[in-house]
Predict the 3D structure of the following.
Amino acid sequence: DEVTIKNGTILPAAGGSDAITVTSASDRTEIHDVTIRCADQSSSSAGLNGILINGNDWEVYNCTVIAGAGSGAGNAGGDAIVISTSANNIAVHDCILYGADGGDSSSGSAAGAGGHGIDVDAGATQIEIANCTVFRTGDGGANSSIGDAGDGGHGVNMTSGATEIDIANCTILK
């Protein structure tokens, strides 16, 4: 409980895990003035997410988060921020976010979807997103002559079942 991550740069390598993941048992976490740049995957894997929020009473502000691209058929690009099902009372303010591209299709397999700026999962509650800029959402992976192209990512993706979400003064450029 009561974790603060501040004033730094995080550069997770391809093949690793998401840049910041804190379990649902961790409450009152604050992340500010941090730059995250996830590496793109080089082998067949889903892209890395920048921040995965599982706990309660989180604040993320003044951060730049760049997710990592997926590689290979069916593998989605990473999301800049994921607010999971178990998250409650989350504030994301004044952040610059980039979703990542999905992996390309091959041999009849569909391509991966592009990553979102922020992905709010079903069950997440009391979410406030303000003064953020999503400069880029991930492109869906390209199709081969046989497989389908992946869907592009969204600036903010809200899954049915997420409740009490307030989005104010945000700019989504792609």
Notes: The chain has a mean pLDDT of 92. The radius of gyration is 15 Å. The first strand starts at residue 4 and ends at 10. Residues 46 and 70 are 4 Å apart (CA to CA).
